[in-house]
Amino acid sequence: MHIAVFFAGYQPFHETKDPGLIPLALQQLDCRVTLITLRKPELASYTAPFPILQVARDELQFLWGRLRPDAVIFYHLIGWPFHEQIAILNQHGIPCIIKADTDGMLIPRSSSIKPLLIRELLIKHSLKSSLLTLTKFVAPSLSRLPTNVQKTAAVIVESTEARRNFIKSLGPSVFNEYKKIHVIPLMVNPLFTQGSIEPIRHRTIVAVGRWEDQAQKHPRGLLQTLRSVLTEFPGYHARIIGSGQTILHNMVHTWPQSLTSRIKILGPLPPTAIRTQLRDSRIFLSASRWESFGLAAAEALCAGNSFVGPPLAPFKDFVGPNGEWGTLARNETIPALQNALITEMHHWEDGTRNAIAIGNHWRARVSINVVGKAVLELAQKLVDQQ
Q: Is the peptide bond before 14 cis (omega within 30 degrees of 0)?
């Protein structure tokens, strides 16, 4: 079988993320795979661990008839190529799988316009600009989604709640298509799913993010939570990893030294160094306002950390049906997040958290081999149905 993976924005750093790990996983499962992306300077000297084909935008429409893959996986749900390419793939009888990368809050109908508008406001800080983006760019693309879902062979979403949201957002016009929507989590870099899991953990909280993305990652909320909780629990420390460290330093520069000495702002680290930081910590903390999955959190779970975050769609899977692997805040306020973090700290203090059990469970769910097999089995099923 030959599977093509299309991701217009692929860059070298994606090699250790889902768009690069899926081709790698399929290749390791003896599936022929080609990653297709738009031609860009960043890839001029790049050597991928799998076949990669760079094309110009106007070449794409002619590619499928020449390449003739058995199936195509498209990143992402609203990317420019999807709407114009799905018809071409159908003409060639090639099953198209959309890799949605979504929390399921999609269609700008009355039931779901609010979260989309809030996200745009947080990013642009302008009601006029936000409404323009939604009406001119987002709405036209999203309005075609019900039809495109009917035409595509399958849609992959990353969490159980995202699937429910997706079906609800698409509305009754495609309700009969719900069987096309499959839950397959993102796969995690093998660095985090292999090796031993340290059973003895320090009283340490870890957060990882692109902190310059303040609208989504909410660094101020993260730091407010840490300030309150670490003040109350002087035996705990925190490590904050990721780009945008200047923003974090500016937010804490007036804090007392007794507090800042227990919060290490480490900046961006390579995956090997992040793995080292997660080996002996207890809790991964997120204050994000929205996520389609939360890859850094999944990496932390695989390393034996439990999870604390707001009640976002993918995070409900992270804590488990009975809170076995973490604690969700009751709502999306900072006080609720603080209470959730304190609750989770008590679980560790009481000895009711088991790092090895947490790590083993999540390694069995998001390892490259397990997720790769799920994707390959889905593709094979769709090809067999042609």
A: no
CA–CA gap between residue 226 and residue 228 (Å, rounded): 5
Give the CA distances from residue 308 to residues 49, 186, 263, in Å, rounded to whole numbers and listed in that order: 35, 19, 17
Look up tokens 């780009």; give the residue.
243
Longest dimension (CA), the chain: 66
> Is the Cβ–Cβ distance between 171 and 146 less than 8 Å?
yes
Alpha helices in the chain, H assignment, sequence order: 18-28, 60-67, 80-91, 113-124, 127-133, 139-143, 145-151, 160-170, 190-193, 214-217, 219-232, 245-252, 257-260, 271-278, 295-302, 315-319, 334-349, 355-366, 368-385
- Show Cβ contacts of residue 224 under 8 Å, excluding neighbours closer than 6 positions: 334, 338
Which pLDDT tens digits describe the chain residue by residue (386 residues)? 999 999 999 999 899 888 999 999 999 999 999 999 999 999 999 999 999 999 998 888 889 999 999 999 998 765 555 677 888 998 999 999 999 877 666 543 334 455 555 554 555 455 555 455 555 555 555 556 667 777 889 999 999 988 888 887 777 666 667 889 999 999 999 999 999 999 999 999 999 999 998 888 999 999 999 999 999 999 999 999 999 999 999 999 999 999 999 999 999 999 999 999 999 999 999 999 888 899 999 999 999 999 999 999 899 999 999 999 999 999 999 999 999 999 999 999 999 999 999 999 999 999 999 999 999 999 999 999 97
pTM of the predicted model, to two decimals?
0.88
To 5 degrees, how large is the angle CA 240–CA 231–CA 344? Answer: 65
Q: Do 28 and 3 form a contact (C-beta atoms < 8 A)?
A: no
Cα–Cα distances (Å) from 304 to 68, 78, 206, 271, 295, in that order, read 43, 34, 12, 16, 15
Q: What tokens appear for 25 in the block?
A: 């996983």
- Residue count of the chain, please give it: 386
- The CB-based long-range contact list for 82-91 (8 Å cut-off, 24+ gap) reads 82/148, 83/141, 83/144, 83/148, 85/6, 85/60, 85/61, 86/148, 86/151, 86/152, 87/151, 88/61, 88/64, 89/64, 90/151
